[in-house]
Amino acid sequence: MKKRTLRIYYISFILISLSILFFFFIQTFNDNLLFYRSPSQISQNEFPENYIFRVGGVVVDGSLVKSKESTDVKFEVTDYNKNIVIKYKGILPDLFREGQGVVVRGKLMKNGIFFAEEVLAKHDETYMPPEISDSLKINDKSLQKTTKSMNIRK
Amino acid sequence: MISYIGFFLILLALLNATLLVLSKPIFSRITPSYQNLIFSTSKIQFPIIFLSFLCLIFAFLSDDFSIRYISSNSNSSLPYFYKISATWAGHEGSLLLWCLILSFWMFLASIYSKSLDSEFRIKFLSIMGILNIGFLMFLIFTSNPFEQNISVPIDGKDLNPLLQDFGLIVHPPMLYMGYVGLSVVFSFAITCCLQGDFKPEWAKWIRPWALISWSFLTLGIALGSWWAYYELGWGGWWFWDPVENASFMPWLITTALIHSLIICEQKSIFKNWTILLSIIAFSLSLLGTFLVRSGILISVHSFANDPARGLYILLFLTLVIGGSLIIYIKNTPKIKDNNNFALFSKESFFLINNILLVTAAFTILLGTIYPLVLDLIGLEKISVGIPYYNIVFLPLMIPLVLLAGYIPILFLSNNQSARNNIKYFLVSFIIILLLTLFSLIFLDSYNLNVIIGIFIFLWISVNLLYDLLQKYMKTKKIKVLMSNIGMTLAHIGLAVFVLGATVVENNKIEKELVMNIGEKVQVSDYTFFFSNMNEEIGPNYKSLKAEFKIYKDGELISKLYPEKRLYLSNKMPMTEAGIEPGLTKDLYIVLGNLIDNDKWSVRIYHKPLIRLIWIGALMMVLGGISSVISKKKQLRNSIE
Lengths: 154, 640
Known about the structure:
The complex is a heterodimer.
Chain A: H1 2-31, E1 33-37, H2 39-44, E2 52-59, E3 65-66, E4 72-78, E5 83-89, E6 101-108, E7 114-120, H3 130-137, H4 140-153
Chain B: H1 2-27, H2 34-61, H3 68-73, H4 80-85, H5 91-112, H6 118-142, H7 166-195, H8 200-231, H9 242-267, H10 271-294, H11 307-331, H12 346-376, E1 382-384, H13 386-404, H14 407-412, H15 418-439, H16 448-475, H17 478-507, E2 509-516, E3 520-523, E4 526-537, E5 541-552, E6 555-560, E7 563-567, E8 572-576, E9 578-580, E10 585-596, E11 599-608, H18 611-639
Antiparallel strand pairs in B: 2-11, 3-4, 4-5, 5-6, 5-7, 7-8, 9-10, 10-11
């Protein structure tokens, strides 16, 4: 009988600590979710200050401005509907170039400029992040525009 | 021509596997020698697929661009060793490699399973045959590596420069050996379900297979991490990227499995749990393949993707997981577990080990799958930030590694009394704490995390070495030493890994600078002098090669040559880091972007003890393998 009560304590101890752990996990999980927004969605929504999220799109031709002194760069990203200006301090990935799809992580500042902490361009020439191609698909007209502009570039 | 032979051989392999699976239901009525048919078909599968694989290698070496897979993954200017490794660089070829390895494991399983009774063996091999059929059909219908080009291009598109590297030659085969090795364990577990029992001698038979798969998995993951470290140019060794997670989840579950199998064998309990773990481990390795190859994840592993493949793997995944779980649920009441064990016993500590590992695996699964599910149902596009994994995963691992340093001593050695145990615990705890504080003298800087890391390292290694020594002194027999060395080595490997990981993550220095040629900069104790910039031509690329001279206390200690390459065939730019490796630290330089004339952005890293991460992993691998070897020897001795 004593053994059994001990066992019940043991099991309930494990269960309680597991559920506390589980609660803690979900909490942390929620705090660390990064949402993705397209430039069009950004213009429609409001964001709390210092809210970190991701934006993706195609780097607009001719929009890249590099500093001659530091690693500061500025460029525009488009989903062929709306553009957003992005500022970044740091080394750009090898495959970052105009006309290429990128995803950036950072926060929107009050003046409407997006301040990026990280810029991702993937390791393939023809690669288009699925997020971007999806948000492009939403707009049929813009999709046709996209393919046209791509053909011209080729 | 060669493509037809290769493809024909794949079809032959499919036929052979079908024969293997059907021989019991069909031929068993006609002739009793159907058993031999099963045994021989299960062995011959490997040579057939191996020949087909050789055909593909040969086609790569002879630049046969009429084959689409080759024209999109190779180029005539590619060095020959990369032509060979390109065989498994893309999706189709790596799937053929998967099938090859699957048939190889079936070959081994067929040879070494003679000690099992024939009914069991037949079911076991048939299940492996079913897995063979599944993957071969996947290969044939969605990803034929021998598919012809409609018009033959003059030259190939070339292998992605990131993959032109030694790491890629070895990383996939090793990882696949681990992934697919789990298919043996899985088939065995399902057979146990069908037989309605899980005998201790069966646990004894399957444990070396789980250990070997685990060792390969460890090696594959470590190689991948090492490759990412030097090739991707970010200097990190683990990114909690979904692709990495995909390989890490089966590793965690397999780690739990090799521990629970010990209890299964010794005490004949945890039977159902162990079978379930085997099913989960293989399911997760299938899920990993699905995630990596279907293209729903963004990563270096998924360059070209095809939704049809994703759909097939998803279907296959559902069938395998669903089917095996149904078999499990139907048969598990037959398998009697004697679940009576004391609170402070070996069993209950192994249970804690298992709970922690499985919980860890599922927290990672949550972070990996949840964004995909949310995206699939069209709700939201999200990704899970790295802090989640660090906050959730690390606290789970601390009790686990502390147990790893103590439990083996507590229960595997001579049964000491409870009072002695407590005395030993306190004494060792105090000694190791003092050693930890003493060792801080050697560090430039430290924080609580580093102290915990060093303590864990000493806790595991001192305890286990003391234990090994004590066992040896008591018996003076090499045999005792040999039978424990694998376990000791693997756990100390874990300790070494923990030390490396905590020190590098807390004491690393990462600088991002703008430097002119001829400029000097001080990082940690080292002076980096950007002395030169040259243009060079490689076999299939041209490059800008910088020269950095590194001084310590005014003395030149090394020269590093970080590069910016441009691969000629596909105009792809690539960064090659300059790394000065060392046991105590790595110095790491990456060229960034050209800012102005002769002015570059540069990353300079100082990474203390980072090599211990891979050395630790290597020790785990050696530990796993040597424990299998010593088991084999024991078995042979006991028979003699």
